[in-house]
Amino acid sequence: MATPVQENLITSNKSYAANFDKGHLPLPPGKRYTVVTCMDARIDPAAAFGIDLGDAHVIRNAGASAKDALRSIVISQQLLQTQEVLLVKHTGCGMLTFQNSDATSIVEKNLGPEAVTAVKDQFGGDFLPFKNLEEQVKEDVAWLKENKAIGSNVTVSGWVYDVTTGKVKNV
Predict the structure, then answer these.
(1) Number of domains in the chain
(2) Who has the most CB within 10 Å: 5, 68, 70, 76?
């Protein structure tokens, strides 16, 4: 039996597919850029950042972490010819609200010590929280610019999206 969320996916997809006419779009993004942004449900990257289907790669993860997104960024650039990265973090981000020890404690409480071991094995137990939004944008941008896995010809910029106004500002 499908959950209500699954039923919504099925119903919505039927409607979408009935009018879908973009199957001809090529695999590489047409505008040759990548957006790294947060998985926060209050952000609609296509609407907020003017991204049409086929324009760009959109990589979403907790906190819009450059480190967490690196594998996808390298694939985007090296295999699919993107030439620019827009890193967009946002106000009110949950990653500002905890430390690694807090997340580890919750995982252990809810799932047990084996889950903590799995977290440590899979990503070193670093949930990549941060204390200052704009400073973290600057650090992530600098990290990408200095990273040897990112081409020196790739343009990288950092942004903050305000979840209360919908506006972005360059950092």
Answers:
(1) 1
(2) 76
Whether residue 80 lies inside any domain: the answer is yes
pTM for this predicted structure: 0.95
Burial class (CB in 10 A: 0-12, 13-18, 19+), 98: middle
Residue with tokens 């039927």: 14
Binding residues for Zn(2+): 38, 40, 90, 93
Binding site as annotated, residues = 38, 40, 90, 93
* Assigned domain for 14 exists: no
Cβ partners under 8 Å of residue 157, min gap 6: 84, 85, 86, 87, 141, 170
In a domain, 118, yes or no: no
The model's confidence at residue 54, banded by pLDDT at 50, 70 and 90, is: very high
